[in-house]
Design goal:
Elements: E1 2-6, E2 9-15, E3 27-28, E4 33-39, E5 49-53, H1 59-84, H2 88-116, E6 122-128
Helix pairs in contact: 1-2
């Protein structure tokens, strides 16, 4: 249910479901309800019951980016270290630098991509208006 409208954004109170535990897009409001902000491109008003669409993020892709890429950075840094020196501490430091560089690159890339891709929920349908009339 829409509880507040501010321009192109609506604050929506939604019923908490089991799948909601891991999402993190909403703030826990009560025991069984949560509040989230959603894009309101269809003109929903306060009191309207609406259907939301929340973009899915691939767990496999996120896991690859957060775990496999830093591991590759570690191996690459360590490999470069062993190629240029026989000193184990320098080699380990270069491996750590590879991990740090990978995380820095992921951070910069995610900021760039987040400006282009919206992960914010959006209202896709008004189920019934504030008077209870189904649409």
């Amino acid at each position: 249910m829409v509880i507040k409208v501010d321009g192109n954004l609506a604050r929506v109170e939604i019923e908490r479901k089991i799948a909601c535990r891991t999402c993190g897009l909403c703030n826990l409001f009560g025991k069984n309800t949560m509040i989230t902000e959603a894009e309101n491109n269809i003109g929903a008003e306060v009191g309207d019951r609406v259907k939301l669409e929340i973009p899915a993020v691939s767990p496999l892709k996120a896991g690859f980016i957060l775990f496999v890429l830093p591991l590759l950075g570690l191996f690459l840094g360590y490999g470069i270290g062993t190629a240029i020196t026989d000193s184990e501490p320098i080699t380990i430091c270069l491996g750590g630098a590879g991990v740090a560089f990978t995380f820095f690159t992921i951070h910069v890339y995610s900021k760039k991509v987040s400006k282009k891709i919206s992960v914010e929920p959006s209202i896709i349908k008004i189920i019934s208006d504030r008077k209870g009339v189904k649409k």
